[in-house]
Amino acid sequence: MDSRLFRRVQRYGWDAASGAYDRGWVPLLRSLTRTCVERAALRAGERVVDVATGTGVAAFAAAAAVGAGGTVTGVDVSERMIERATEQGRADGATNVHFERGAMETIGAPDGAFDAAISAFGLMYAAERKAAAAELARVLAPGGRVSVAVWGQRSACGWAEVFPIVDAHVESEVCPLFFSLGVPRALEILFRGAGFVDVVEERRAVTLAWPSDDEACGAMLEGGPVALAWKRFSPETRAQVRAAYLESIAPFRRGAGYEVPSEVVFARARRA
Length: 272
What we know:
By secondary structure, the chain is of the alpha/beta class.
C-alpha cells in the first residue's frame, strides 16, 4: 500500500477507534505502557517526545517523571486521539505536556530537540518504519534514549486471526506488516540501521482479559487497527466478522469472558 494512503487509513481509522480504544485497550495496556516509559530512564527537567501517543497515557507518565521543569510533546496521526489527550491533560491540570497531530516519519521538531523518545504500541503503525526510526534519531540529542513497545510474534498473540478475518471482506490487507517488528531482533536491526547503539530487547508474555463477548469484540473490532474497515461494514458483514473472531478466540474462553495470550516486545536504545 502506498505510504501516503496508509497514513490516511491510519489517521481516519484511529479517529474512528478513539472512544472504543480508551474503553477497551487503555485499561489493559496502562501498566505495559508505564513499563515502556520507565525503560527510558527519564530524569527531571528532560525534554521528551511520545510518538503515536494515542490518548496520552505514555505522555502523562513521562510528564510526571520529568516534573515541572521538563516538557513532553505527544504526537499522533489521529486528530481525535489528540483531542482526547488534550482534554485529559486539561482536566488533570497537566502544564508540562502538550499534544499535536503529526506522522511518525515527520515529527517536525528541530534536530536534537529531545532528550528521550517513547512509543508504546505505536511503531508498528508507521507507514515507513526506517524513516520513522531515522526521524527519532534526528530529533534526539546525542546520547538521547528511545524506548518502545510493540506486539510480539504473530504466533504468540491469540487474537491475531482478526486480520485475515477482516481482510476477507476488504479489497486490501488492513495491516499487512503488523507483527513484523515482533520478530526476534527486528527492532534491534531497525534501530541500529538508524544509528542507535546499545540496543536491548525484552520479550514478555502477557494475558489480555475481557469479561464478555461484547467487550472482547468492542476492543478488537471497534477500538483497534481494523476499526475503519469495521465502521464501513454492513450489519450482515459485521455479524459474520464478529462470529468468526469469537470463534478464533474460543480456546481462550474463561467463563463468560476471555483470557487471550499475547506477547509484547520492549526495546530501548541510545543515539550515538
